[in-house]
Every structure is written in C-alpha cells, then in structure tokens.
Design a protein that fits this description.
Blueprint (H helix, E strand, L loop, with lengths): L16 E2 L2 E2 L3 H5 L9 E5 L5 E4 L10 E2 L7 E7 L2 E6 L5 E2 L1 E7 L3 E8 L2 E8 L7 H4 L3 E10 L5 E10 L10 E9 L2 E8 L18 E6 L5 E7 L4 H4 L13 E2 L5 E12 L4 E10 L4 E3 L2 E3 L10 H34 L1 H16 L1 E5 L5 E5 L11 H14 L1 H16 L17 E2 L16 H19 L3 H5 L1 H14 L20 H20 L3 H22 E2 L2 E2 L16 H5 L7 H11 L16 E3 H9 L4 H17 L9 E3 L5 E3 L11 H4 L2 H8 L10
Parallel strand pairs: 7-8, 21-25
Antiparallel strand pairs: 1-2, 3-4, 4-5, 6-7, 6-13, 9-10, 10-11, 11-12, 12-20, 13-19, 14-15, 14-18, 15-16, 16-20, 17-19, 21-22, 23-24, 26-27, 28-29, 29-30
C-alpha cells in the first residue's frame, strides 16, 4: 500500500571532489585532473546489475545498462521553486556540472544551479579482500546540498529508479510493492513472470529478482511507488502521490518508478546530506551443472532484509574503509606506472569486478564466474580469465582460484575428452558445459595451446604469490596431461585460434609459442614446489631448449615475427611478460628490450597495433607489452596513447578493449573484465604484489 513516510537523522557530509581522488587526498593535491572517460560507472556490481552514464554530463541523457539499453535513474531539485535536473533526461533545466570524479569505489558529481551546490555520490564498497562485502549487491547513494552564493535557499530533491532495472525488455509485465525494514522504507519492483535463470545470451538484462530502493529514516523524506506521469507532482512543488496500484502492467506503460523526495528545508552554507541504497536481489544467480547457486552473501541463509539492515548500519565505517583503500591503491598505481597509468587502472577497477558474479557452491565455497560481455556471452571463459588475472593475483588471489576451480573440475569429468584445456563452461548465466567452437564433440575451432597454456600459467602465478603449490596438487594428473600436450604441440603451433580469435586462425604463431614454452616452465616450477624433482628437471630442460629454438625461429632483424614462416612481419609478444613477472629467465632480457624499442616505432595515435596485419589493438595487451620495459619512460610512452584513447574515443561505451589505433573508435567488445589486465604492471614489483595479495582474508585467500 502507499507509503509516504517522514524520516529523521541526517547523515554526515560527503567529502569534496577532484577527479580520481577525494579532495582530501594528497594525490589529488599533487595532480588534480578532469579526465574524460568513454562512460562512467554509477552502480556496477555484476553483469546484470551494472548501470552507467554514457555521457560527459550526468544530466544529459538517461543512464544505461552496460549493453546500452536504458535503465533510468533520474534526479531533480527544486530551489526556491525553480525546477532543475541533475541526473538523466527529462524536464527542467540541467544543472551546471562542475566536476565528476572516479575512484575505485566511488563516482561523484558536483553540480551548481539556483544558487546551490549539489554533490551526488555513488559508493560501491567493492573491496576484493572481503568477499562478504564484495558480493553485496548494494550501492550507497547520497546527495549533499549547500548554498553556493551565501544566501539561504529552500531546497527539495527528488530521485527515482525505473522498472527498466528489472526487465530485459519493456514489453514484460512488472509488479511492485514496499515494506518497512527497520527504520527504512524499502521499495521493490520486478517482473510478474520471475523466470529465474531461464534466458542465456549476451545482449540480455536480468528479468527475475527484485530491484530495490531503500530509504533510511531522515528529515523530510517521503517515498512512493509511482508512474512516470506522476513525476509532475514534484515538478509542480507538490508532495508525492499515494502508491500506484495499477499492476501488473507492461514496464513501458506509465513506467513504474521507485521514487523518493527529500525536503531539505532552508539550506545555508553548511551542507545537508540525504541518502538511500540501490540494491538488487537476484534470488538465484548462476546455474552450475544444473544446480542453482545463490549469490555468495546468501550462503548462510541471509535474507535481503537482513542484508539491507546490515548495509545501512555499516555505511559510515564502509565509507571510511573505501576512502582509505582508494587513496592507497591510487598512490601505489601512480608510483608503479605514472599518473596516466593510474587513471587507466582506476577506470578499469569497477568494470573488471562488474563483469563477474560471485556465488557459493553447495558447500559454501566461493565460485567466481565471468561473462564475455559483447564478445559472445560465454561464462567462465579461460582466455577472458587469463587477461584479467593480474587484477585478482594482486588484490585477492583466492578470487582467481574461484574462477579456475570450476574449469578444472569440468575438465576432470569424463565428458571432457580432449587432452587440452576447455575454453568455457557455457553461456551466461548457465555454466553447464562448453559451447564455444566444437564444444564437447569436436576439436575443431578450439584453442588447445591457448587455454592449456593459460591455465598452467595462472596456476603457477597463484603458487608463486602464495608460496605453495597445494592448489596445483589437487589437479596434478590433469595439469600433467596439459603439459604433455604443450610439450608435443606448443613450440610450433598448428593452424588454430588463440585468444585473439577475431584475427582468425594462424599457424606457427610466435606469441602463442611463447605462451606454451613459459607454461611448460611454469609446470616445471609447480613440480619442484610439490617435491617432484625429476619431473621438474625434465620439463625445465625442455622449456629451456624450446626457448633457445624460439629465438632462432622468430628473429627478424631488430624484432621478432608474427609467425615463424612469415618474414617481414611482427606482433606484440605480450605473453613474454610472465617470464619477467614469475622471474623465470627463460628468455634473455635483451629480447624484451629489443621488442620494446621496436614497439615504440610502431605506435599509432591511440596505441600500439596488435600486429602488422591490422591497425586495431587490444588495450590489455598493450599494458602487458609495456610491462616488458625496464625503463619507466618507455612504459609510460607505450601507455600514454592508451590513456589518450580513454580520454578521446568517440565511442561512448564502458571501456572497450578492442579499438582502432588510428582514430580511437571501438571495433568491438565493451565492459569486459579483461581491462583488469592493466594491473599486470603492479605484479612486476614483487614488493607491491606481496603487499596487496597478503591482505586477502581467510583460507585460500578468498573466504
């Protein structure tokens, strides 16, 4: 029924702003910037709960899901009776946007109009070393208002979240309601059908579960479930109407809204703040070999009401934790690679996490599933986990284990009959077995060397940062099978796909060969750590011999070839970075430095092409290639055009990793987790890697 409730207890003022850091941060004082990005994360949790602004100005157009479909969050203020818009499209004059900031956990906008200054923040405490917190589908919203002209002003603020958050298409019917939870009013909206986990695919939005807007008790707060046409009440200076009860109805029909109104009364020089929480309860999150798994936060039976109460109680302390995390991470990123690198990594942060879903298996063990956003919609793709792995190796190695374990368990099943590693586990959100290429029936169009090498390298990196190979030991016969395959097929790969499958099949792929050789050496190190000295010696010797052969086969003057049989060609040898990061010394450092020198002569305005065949590139691989550089200046020179792409790309979508180096236009892919690969530079500093990875909580780093 209709809730128009008054609330009490104001919240603390939100700190001032500067791009990529709070104004109180020493980093902001050193290097304040106003970096434009192709899109801005607002509410970014997982592939279904991921809302962005695709514009420079928050009040320019409606907010969108990462796929580009509208998922409107809208905001207005009345100042001394004058209507102004601060978020989304629609009526009223747009406020003047003075700044927009992005940190790993927070996006904030500062607006002016009508003699007031409004600060709107979106805080998502996505701290990777705390899985209970990371898995919470809750973003904190706050609006801080103060006089900007020294005069008192009467201010009311309105915010709504639309039914679009809970439907794949606005042709679906929705229903809604509201309830009291503690001192909060919690509104929710969802589809009438509630077809949980029924649809699979790429360009899809969730159409089960419940979008929720929770409004704690505060002065001058009222809430109501209304239709789009009822917004006029606020615009005309009236109270919100009673709840709209005409349901169910199609989502586009007088679009249902979860709305809240705050009457600030008279506002002077001292800021007043109001707050809310936007959340999503997906009930069941992933289907894993026909078992429906809940989000990780649900593993012990917690309800959504209990979660919201806990989240509301912890808000102040979480903001402090988030601010401290942001300051420290940004500082370390800048020290590792310079300011432009730090900004690129900060923009990649929430995008990386929001392309995954964290769930609990039947025994409570965390499992972490990626989605191939706008590349084919696969779930748990190994060559998507591979480029994103540096992010998790740095910030919580257990989250990488939680991605690898489902692949390893699948590959142990009799149904996976190939001597190489799988590519994926299905199509998101159903992880029921590989669908890519020949699936489980044929070796055609698979990535045999690619995925086998990826798995061995990632498992070896886990062992290095943990100081033990226990995880590898659980799957040793399987890893041995893949190592034997690479020993036979890895030095001079046959005609096959690699992770850069958009470039087509390629035989004698020199970069793929590096992966196989390094993976064999990684397997040798795992064997050594497990006390298998004989096996370690054999594979270490084999890898060293293959590396010597590679140098002869690949050399082409002042650089190395794309393919062994193609003189006059070149490619990024980004797979060589593991030899440096894992400190294996298979290949001479002179090789990496000669490659870097050559790369610096091949750059386009927006970055280094992937290879000589096309002018397009991959954002993640450029940073891996740049990490080969011993010189900080060379690293920064390779990263600078990528930063320019981030600032100037004409394609307004969440950060694309596949784009043209000539004009910065997206070729394909967006909002993918692979941008987490930019954290590879942090792994090249052993002290930084140990510092951050050691903070992960619990057994296996992940619990």
């Amino acid at each position: 029924m209709g809730f128009r409730r008054n609330h009490s207890a104001a919240f603390c003022r939100i700190a001032g702003l500067a791009i990529l850091a709070a104004a109180t941060s020493p980093l902001a004082a050193q290097a304040p910037v106003t970096t434009r990005t192709p899109a801005t994360p607002l509410v970014a949790h997982d592939p279904y709960f991921s809302i962005w602004s695709f514009e420079d100005l928050l009040a320019e157009r409606p907010t969108r899901h990462w796929t580009g479909s509208e998922q409107q969050l809208s905001g207005f203020v009345r100042v001394d009776g004058k209507l102004l818009r601060f978020m989304g499209g629609g009526g009223g004059e747009a406020m003047v946007q003075r700044s927009r900031s992005i940190t790993p956990t927070t996006t904030a906008y500062e607006m002016e109009g009508g003699g007031i200054r409004l600060t709107a923040t979106f805080f998502t405490p996505a701290l990777p070393n705390d899985l209970d917190l990371l898995s919470r589908p809750v973003t904190y919203l706050s609006w801080s208002v103060r006089s900007a002209d020294g005069r008192p002003h009467a201010v009311q603020l309105y915010f709504d979240a639309s039914a679009q958050l809970a439907v794949d298409s606005e042709q679906q019917r929705v229903t809604w309601g509201s309830a009291r939870v503690g001192d909060m009013t919690v509104m929710r909206i969802g589809t009438s059908e509630q077809a949980v986990l029924q649809k699979v695919g790429d360009n899809l939005r969730i159409d089960w579960g419940w979008a929720q807007l929770a409004v704690p008790q505060q002065p001058g707060a009222t809430t109501a479930m209304i239709g789009m046409g009822d917004r006029g009440a606020f615009m005309e200076g009236k109270q919100l109407p009673a709840d709209d009860l005409a349901m169910p109805r199609l989502a586009h029909q007088n679009r249902p809204l979860m709305a809240t109104r705050f009457d600030f009364g008279t506002v002077g020089a001292e800021a007043q703040t109001r707050r809310a929480m936007l959340a999503y309860d997906d009930i069941d999150a992933i289907e894993y070999f026909k078992r429906r798994l809940p989000a990780y936060w649900r593993r012990d039976g917690m309800t959504m009401a209990e979660l919201l109460l806990k989240a509301e109680a912890e808000e102040a302390s979480l903001r402090e934790r988030g601010a401290a995390f942001d300051r420290e991470l940004i500082g370390d990123l800048e020290r590792a690679g310079g300011r432009e690198y730090a900004e690129l990594a900060v923009v990649a942060y929430r995008q990386t996490l929001a392309a995954h879903k964290l769930v609990a298996d039947i025994d409570g063990r965390p499992l972490y599933f990626s989605k191939e956003n706008f590349s084919n919609g696969c779930i748990a793709t190994v060559d998507v986990t591979y480029p994103s792995s540096p992010f998790f190796l740095l910030l919580n190695p257990g989250l990488l284990e939680a991605q690898l374990r489902p692949i390893l368990d699948y590959a142990k099943m009799p149904r996976w009959r190939f001597p190489f590693a799988p590519h994926d586990l299905g199509t998101y959100p159903q992880a029921n077995g590989q669908v890519y290429g020949g699936g489980e029936t044929s070796a055609d169009d698979q990535m045999p060397v690619e995925e086998s090498g990826n798995m061995l390298l990632m498992i070896a990196a886990l062992a290095k940062v943990r100081g033990n190979a226990d995880f590898a030991g659980e799957y040793w016969p399987l890893l041995s099978r893949w190592a034997d395959f690479l020993l036979d097929k890895g030095l001079d790969p046959e005609n096959q796909l690699s992770t850069d499958d958009f470039a087509g099949h390629l035989a004698h792929n020199a970069n793929l060969s590096i992966k196989a050789i390094s993976a064999l050496d990684a397997y040798a190190e795992l064997a050594r750590m497990l006390g298998k000295s004989g096996e370690a010696g054999r594979y270490r010797t084999a890898a060293r011999n293959m590396a010597r052969q590679w140098l002869t086969m690949a050399r082409d003057g002042d650089h190395t070839r794309l393919a062994f049989d193609k003189p006059g060609t070149w490619s990024q040898k980004y797979n060589l970075v593991w030899d440096k990061v894992l400190d294996r010394n298979l290949f001479p450092d002179a090789l990496a430095q000669s490659e870097v020198r050559f790369y610096l002569t091949q750059q386009g305005p927006f970055g280094l092409p992937l290879d000589n065949r096309k002018t397009y590139t991959k954002l993640d691989w450029i940073v891996w290639s740049a990490t080969l550089a011993d010189s900080g200046a060379d690293f920064r020179s390779l990263v600078a055009p990528v930063h320019r792409f981030m600032r100037e790309s004409p394609t307004r979508v969440p950060l694309s990793d596949w784009y043209e180096t000539t004009d910065g236009r997206q070729v394909g892919f967006q909002a993918r987790s692979v941008v987490g690969g930019v954290y590879m530079k942090m792994l090249s500093d052993p002290a930084l890697w140990r510092k951050w990875a050691s903070r992960a909580r619990g057994a296996g780093d992940a619990k």
